[in-house]
Amino acid sequence: MSNLCGSVDSRPLMSQRSLPVTPVSHKHLPIDLRTSMDGKYKEIAEELLARSLTDSDMRCAPYEFPEESPIEQLEEKRHRLERQISQDVKLEPEILVRAKQDFMKVDSTADLEYLKDSQEDTVDYPFIERETVTEREFQRVSISGEEKCGVPFTDLVDAAKCVVKALFIREKYMSLSLQNFSRTTARCLRELNERPLDTNIYEELHESPVDSDVSVHPPVSKTHPYEEQNLPSDLGYSCAMVDGVFHVYTTQNPKDKSTELDLPYPDLQEYIADMNVMMALIINGPVKSFCYRRLQYLSSKFQMHVLLNEMKELAAQKKVPHRDFYNIRKVDTHIHASSCMNQKHLLRFIKRAMKKYPDEIVHIENGRGQTLMDVFENMNLTAYDLSVDTLDMHADRNTFHRFDKFNSKYNPIGESILREIFIKTDNHIHGKYFGHIVKEVMSDLEESKYQNAELRLSVYGRSMDEWDKLAKWAVTHSVYSDNVRWLVQIPRLFDVYRTKKQLSNFQQMLENIFLPLFEVTINPSSHPQLHLFLQHVVGFDSVDDESKPEHHIFNLDSPSPARWCDDDNPPYSYYLYYMYANMTVLNHLRRRRGFHTFVLRPHCGEAGPIHHLVSGFMLSENISHGLLLRKAPVLQYLYYLAQVGIAMSPLSNNSLFLSYHRNPLPEYLSRGLMVSLSTDDPLQFHFTKEPLMEEYSIATQVWKLSSCDMCELARNSVLMSGFSHKSKSHWLGPDYTKEGPISNDIRRTNVPDIRVAYRYETMCEELHLIIQAVRTQELDSIEEETLCFTSAQSIR
Length: 796
Hints:
By secondary structure, the protein is of the alpha/beta class.
């Protein structure tokens, strides 16, 4: 097996052929990021992954900070004290007295003087300059003195290197797949070098500017989006899957390797190496301590900000005419189409269908057609008998930690045949009833004007024609709204299909999912309805019960998709890697054709092992849930610095995995993570016609959120969403892509500039802290090398 120990032997990301611009691997990083863990990444990662496969006797997981475990705290403090004593002995004997003091209060004098001298040699960062405009003036909390983070300087340098390395990893994978990476973080990383990673394979697409006084309402489509258009021409390319990833060829003969297009995707070996690096980072003691302290500091700083500026933020909101929480844009960033209606809505529709279409054949049973009336007569039910209680689709206390019981709630009256008839796109009536219900939900959104949704539709990968059937359903029934965009979710159910002999191996599932997408991109005329439908699809989701045990560790010894013929399900990271790899190739092909690209936004961190969140951090633009971040301070800090979007659904979590009061959303929000509120499944969890407003209402009452907090969550939801740049420019302001308070238009968002400035300045200070530590260490290394060289010259 190839050596995966750290970055020394890792190779650049590469396709089977050369890339247009080959991204740089870690051994070519612009700065020395070697740490004490180098050479041990593989062993540490595999040990942690092995623990995730079995129940552990440990009081807390190795990636958690033992906040509630006094014994572990004392042990950790003892080890830190011993490390400090040994360090002081090497520096100066008289400092030994300091080792008896409380270690966490101050560092050694030598460390403080060393840091002070180093800071004088470094260039001040220009990006923390504060605005002096009156409207943006507010009370700021500043920390004076040299020591700002409560850990020894040597630990700070080691932790900063690890954090920077992790951010480089994410930037690499986001750039390679043409997904978004935080502008502020990217610019700060470039302070380490002019161009840290050569991953800009394509120049950014420049969107047409929007006037500053443009209406808050984007123009309505004049023509129906599903009307036949002049389809782009056929490129005449062909494609074939190799080791689970599609390759594109410029001729119809995929066997001619010389005609292969240079479309990049991540090399498996480097992905595994990067995964090992990330797994090792999250259990490193000094890194955990550093990240935990920074997160606690961010929470405390926000509380101080609220105490000092809450009235100023409220006053700024009151000055804005017409705008309030009700008429700012909100996006439901995580909602499944099959449960986008509430129980009462579905009940009314079923009763209406029974009266309007009683004799319509809706199901085939044993070769004989059944009408809607026949179906209900077989159940001894009439329209009058039906009620919300009869449907029994609401989650209750019995679904807590019982995902199997929750899935059964999708069946009205407990009958799977009713689920097939009313909330499926692929049935005997071609999803007619489901199309009507979704259009009614869209109509409600359009009536509200300010609410939008990103609905999930399923593609299972059991057959090659699923995409065409889905597109036909959307086009035939005109299921479209300017307030809605689609995501396509891929359920992780290979083991189920394999057991039923529907699939022979995992590669067949990947081909069923991605081959139609490559075909329609190469030749839109081959799937004309799919081409129209994909114009409104923004990304992919990966869904299933994350708490299900995994029996396999994804490494270089894992079977390739063509050889994965077991009845066991591949692990989460296996699914995500091959989805990401194929999406990356597809995105580059679509970019060449001038089509829009897709993003990866999986369910991640709701339950299960922590490596789900590691995969999500590396490969996904946004994630849904993210509950387990509360137990992993290193990952939570990284998600903050990279501003990874997290769509959270507290009411859904309350019924399935985590009680409402324990939900970390208010904690994430106070620390500055990019979080938004979403509904997940209104059919199971909500009661009103406006489930998103219900979600905001309950969160505000329980957690005592301010008007500014609510508007910030709404603004985050728009930023995270897949709606077009033009729509976002209307909703947030034409400068929303810029950094700092200039990006905010309070007339549209109702978020005070004070809050946006606070978030921006706080994040810049955090980035400044870690980058300054890395640069200080780099300068010190250069000085040492210079001294050694000078000494050698003098000896000669």
